[in-house]
Amino acid sequence: MTIEHGKIQVMNNALRMVGSYHLENGDTTSVSYQIADRAFDDAIVSIFSENVFTFNTIRKYYSDATDLSTLSDAEKPAEQWKYRVSLPNKGPSNYQGFQRVIKVTNKEGNALLDWYAEIYQAPGTAVVYDEPYYLYTTEKDFHIYYTFVPNGEGGVNRGDTIGNMDAHLIRAVTLYMAQSMCIELSGSETRQQALLVQYERAIRRARVIEGRGNPSQRYIHDGNSQLMNSHYGYGSV
């Protein structure tokens, strides 16, 4: 039997942990719903903006980087880069967009160390949240790995539905919600502290599980080692 982990189920699980009544389907007006809804948003933002999991990591390949020689001096950063690409905008209006770059690799998968990211504000424009977010590099074709914050509300995209998360992430979200709204709903500081301890264990366990499934680095050999390439090419022009 398939177990559903939609938003309402997660909210009810968190409410039960604090000894509160569960929500009925379609309830969007009760005090309990408002508190749980706010706790849900806080949990999603806190957990996925501060951690890197497979669920909230995207790899995107760029082959159409802009040549900086075609841009005006005002558009070029102080550093001397050759190419730039636009990353998803970073701001409240793009909730599921770019969070932070994890790494950049070339087409062969070797890590690029020479890259730089910034939010660019054109001269004479007002400061807004949707200013372009650019990444500069010395390569024209490359892969970018970046994290995003899912919305968890339900939709067509991978990060839109909390049911797409692994069980260890759902448990972390549920416990974060429970400990954050416990005092408001139950008035028990003792229970809140106990739930906080459980959440801290759950988020550590989630990191361990992710670490086991995703090695921190690939095997290093002569073909992908930056150090070895520098050594072999030392003195060459």
Brief digest:
The protein has 237 residues and is an alpha+beta fold. Helices cover 35% and strands 16% of the residues.
Please specify the SSE layout and strand pairing.
Blueprint: H1 7-17, H2 31-50, E1 57-62, E2 66-67, E3 83-87, E4 98-105, E5 115-119, E6 133-137, E7 142-148, H3 167-186, H4 189-213, H5 226-232
Antiparallel strand pairs: 1-7, 2-3, 3-6, 4-7, 5-6
Q: What's the count of strands? A: 7
Task: Return residue spans where pLDDT drops below 50 for at least 5 consecutive residues.
Answer: 91-95, 217-224
Spatial arrangement of strands, main beta sheet = 2-3-6-5
* Strand residue content: 15-25%
Q: Structural class, judged by helices and strands?
A: alpha+beta
Q: What order do the SSEs take from the amino end to the carboxyl end, as H and E?
A: HHEEEEEEEHHH
Overview of this protein structure:
The chain is built from five helices and seven strands. Helices cover 35% and strands 16% of the residues. It has two domains: 7-53 and 150-213; 57-148, no CATH class. Helix 1 packs across helix 3 (167-186) and helix 3 runs antiparallel to helix 4 (189-213). With 237 residues, the protein is α+β, with helices and mostly antiparallel strands. The N and C termini lie far apart (65 Å). Strands 2-3-6-5 form a four-stranded antiparallel sheet, with no helix packed on it.
